[in-house]
Amino acid sequence: KVDAEGIAKGVVGGSTKNKTGGAGGKALTNDNTDVLAAYDKFFKDELRRKFEPPPGLGESLKGTFEVRSNADGTFTSARVVKSSGSREFDQAVLDAIRRVKLPPRPDKKSETVEFDFNMRDRPE
Fold it and tell me: Which of 26, 29, 38, 92 is buried most deeply by CB count within 10 Å?
């Protein structure tokens, strides 16, 4: 039960009328799209950090990959959707995916995600 009297004392101009709580607004809600976009960026940043490029490969290599993003933050079933043309590059990306560890997903769901990864995107 909400202590309306106690709250009103601590809020300038506060009212004791609301005895059930909640203002009916969105102050404590979030847009899952933004949260998941941030989680996706976190994954890609971690993937770039874990990626160890094989020596002698060109900077223009790009592949499309798919991975199962699990609710607990693990990634499984990684596979190449569209090869970069370099087996070594594709394998290095798959190896990096296996090394990525993240906290649980903010939506507590699992899904399969597809993304592009190229040599130019990796950190310096």
Answer: 92
